[in-house]
Amino acid sequence: MIRKIEQVLELAKGKQATIAVVAAEEESVLQAVADARREGLADFVLFGPQAQIAAKLRGLGEEPGNYPLKDCSSPVQAAHAAARLVSEGGAHTLMKGNIKTGSLLKVLLESQYSFRTGNTMSLCGVFEVPTLDRLLIITDPGMVIAPTLEQKVDLVRNAVQLAHALQNPEPRVGVIAAVEVVNPKMPATLDAAVLATMNLRHQLDGCIVDGPFALDNVVSLEAAKHKGIESPVAGKADILLMPDIEAGNILYKALVFLANARAATTILGGSVPLIVTSRADSSETKMFSIALNVALGGVQA
User: Fold this and answer.
1) Where do the domains of the chain lie, and which CATH numbers do they carry?
2) pLDDT digits (tens, 9 = 90+) for 25-35
3) Does the chain have fewer CB atoms within 10 Å around its N or its C terminus?
4) Pair 20, 86: CB distance under 8 Å
């Protein structure tokens, strides 16, 4: 089982992936691309203002001739051109650069590009937290605003696919709420109970699901024991299913900016995994996200 985020680099090497980068003029994206290319993780096709991208590559000590540059007059034009390349098989996946996530997804979800599968597309973050002995997957910190029960089923399945790709054959999924007991007035606890039952009845396979849990009870055995919680997931969760985007996003940022976690992200649920990072993410996070998505390879919904 992969326990350090740098180990993802080894999973990605040798897959000979090609990645289409949309609006590639963003400097932290280009730095991540350059680092990934030096690590032998992938080749890249860069879409955007050609002269600006070439100048920034030179500023990073890179030779622009090593990267196919496709001149595009706007981020949306770049998104269409990159999506077309992926849909035609000229690239394995796509990476977000200097374009709003909503604008990129609007293009990708057009029927002509066949990214949509009918399943819920969701963002998964993978974190190496200094105080934990394992990688932690969080969903969904950036896409699905207020997931329904049906969407939460897809979110769990997407995160479990990711855990399997990280060589965790049976990840423990903790369904997070404010409390660890079922309360009819708190919908997140009801959803947690249903998801746990679905897992017991083999409607959610390849994992162990339990909940509801307050956050401390899935990451700390001591906290779980103190509250008398007995569960194979208590204190040992590999995946945290958050109740909504606010909780997921706050935890994501807290881990990175307060707990010094190293991170990588992917969007799953479409025809191919997508590299959609935040503008606030470091070039290291973006490079690890490249490696993660290359390692996912042929994972599909």
Assistant:
1) 7-117+286-296 (3.40.718.10), 122-257 (3.40.718.10)
2) 999 999 999 99
3) N
4) yes
